[in-house]
Amino acid sequence: MSDRLNRLMPKAGWVAAVIVLLALPLYVDGFWLSAGLVAMAAAVGAVGLTLLVGAAGQLSFAHAFFLAVGAYGYACFSGEPGAATLGLGLPPALGAALAIAVTGALGLAFSPVASRLRGIYLGVASLSLVFVGQHLLHNLTGVTGGFNGRDTPMFTLAGFDVTGSEPPVTVAGVPFGATERLWYLGLVALAGAGVIARNLLRGRTGRALRMVRDSEVAAAVLGVDVRRSKATAFVVSSMFAGAAGVLSALALDRVVPDYFGLLLSVEFLAMIVIGGLGSVGGAVTGAAFVTLLPIVLARYSGVLPLVADAGSGGVDAAVLARFCYGAAVVLVILIQPDGLAGLGRRLRARLGPAVPSLQEST
Amino acid sequence: MSNLVELVINGLSLGSIYALIALGFVVIFKATEVVNFAHGSMLMLGAYVIAATHGRIGFPAAVAAGLATAATVGLLIDRLLVSRLRRRSHTALAIVTIGVDIVLGAELARRVGTEVLNMGDPWLDHTWRVAGFTFPVSRLAAIAVALVLIVAFAALVRYTDWGVAMRAAAEDAEAASLMGIRLGRVSMVAWVVAGVLAAVAGLFLATFPSPGLSATASTTALRAFPAVVVGGMDSLSGAVVGGLVIGLAETLAAGYSEQLLFLGRGLGDVAPYAVMIAVLLWRPTGLFGTRELSRV
């Protein structure tokens, strides 16, 4: 009996989580939904980065650049034609798909560099993409709107506004506006990203990537095309970043160059390290932690004793959040290299019978 | 033409500052295999201590304090973190330094805020006029100091026991340790030396012609990464050459930005990265880096 219970427990947990996430817009106000949306966008990107850094062992700072390509790509493909900035006026779903494809293509274009470089050289070389990207975003004003950025076009699917309020929908007395609707799009994207990444990691591709990470020579001997595997990891991860970029653009309503700086890349690395390198669930948890922490701290800065007001020169919410996740990164590597995911696995192992788990971590 | 000469001298001076940063970075990498992403914060910390203390204790003492602080932080990172993580992957070690950089960088950015801090250096905005050319004295001082430090560093690596030990450890850590070389001490000295070099570089990055120490100094320091990669990450002479190449590229791109306007504004800031990508496409381990071969 208890055996069966143990098998059902994880499934029941998943069902409960899905129900809670689906029902959340009915109970939670717009502020937290927006925060959750930013976290979901980050989670999609983090899942992509964990494939590259965790599974394939390639440290990369280029994630912010690929996010920017996704965000601006969507804005260009689906933006209104004839405005001050370039817009092709394509249907939003098509625009988003094209933006992701373009991000993948750019990943492919950089992959000759990426696959030739050994892990740590790539880490340093990928810094260049962030800075070259910043330069382009600030200078290609006809496409990006320059320093002030550009508005995100509205997302509509077959006449139904996902980031608008036409036609009006009310569920259980709660009017469903832009944020509520976008919430479900975010959930779909996150679920899709999670499933794709999980399948990739469990299948042939994932095994090849981990093999390359652990020993390139051994991988080559076993018939894995090392360069190709690395390039694949880079392209797939940049496509996840593109999707995350589209989602962030929708969640933030406006894309500005400064958002896509080096700090964003560093935050992404912090997310996947805290969550546990190579773990999809960990990446999502880490993304939630890193993105929500400053928002929560800022929201309750009046109540919390240590937090000063923003701009006062004291330790404000943003700085305190950076202290926390910076320290978390160091502690995770020192004490618990598998991150939160490893912690979760240990807990489960203690509670139930040993579940044979996929070796996903470094 | 006079413009070109001035630009080249300024480029070499900026390049020698980058070379100092790059040298510290490479010596850490050789001795401990750590790619130190906290290098920019170490540099900024040294410069900040100089800027914050020179008013009370005078410039020379402030410089000593800045160097000592940066060296101490290097020592702490080595003792508390790196020495506990031997035998872990490059990625794990690099990520630890990213964590340190997040914390240290956040605190320094908060303290400096939107201000531009004066370094209190004796060169002020004096310039030297030689044969019709004008050079900022602080830049010439940078070249002189960098030259002295680079020569001293080369002597340290070539002639001292520590230098021999460091080179042996870089060649084959296990064999070196079996020969009785204390890897812990090698790594400790490497981090201290890197901290000192970074602080000196931080001082010169914040003196004239730059307006002073601002929160963007750590971004400027990041341009030493292209220098390191261009030279090859495990080559000390490569670090110097890479630093000079990057400094020249940046200064020339900024100096001729009027003519290069079709490439966009602020070209000097990205030129180092463009050079890095170009060099990497040509030689994946930089100009002087050892090619990695694997024997099966």
TrEMBL record, chain A:
Naturally occurring in which organism (per UniProt): Planosporangium flavigriseum
Name of this chain's protein: Branched-chain amino acid ABC transporter permease
Transmembrane residue ranges: 12-28, 34-54, 61-80, 92-113, 120-137, 182-201, 231-253, 259-280, 287-308, 320-341
Cell compartments where the protein resides: Cell membrane
GO MF annotations in UniProt: branched-chain amino acid transmembrane transporter activity
GO cellular component terms, semicolon-separated: plasma membrane
Pfam (any one): BPD_transp_2
Record's keyword terms, sorted: Cell membrane, Membrane, Transmembrane, Transmembrane helix
Automatic annotation (TrEMBL), chain B:
Recorded GO MF terms: transmembrane transporter activity
Name recorded for this polypeptide: Branched-chain amino acid ABC transporter permease
Keywords, sorted A to Z: Amino-acid transport, Cell membrane, Membrane, Transmembrane, Transmembrane helix, Transport
Pfam families (UniProt xref): BPD_transp_2 (PF02653)
Family, similarity comment: Belongs to the binding-protein-dependent transport system permease family. LivHM subfamily.
Membrane topology per record: Multi-pass membrane protein
Biological processes, Gene Ontology terms: amino acid transport
Entry keyword annotation includes rRNA processing: no
Coiled coil: none
Location in the cell: Cell membrane
Residue ranges crossing the lipid bilayer per the database entry: 12-29, 57-77, 89-110, 130-157, 188-208, 228-248, 260-282
Species this protein is from: Planosporangium flavigriseum
Entry superkingdom: Bacteria
GO cellular component, one term: plasma membrane
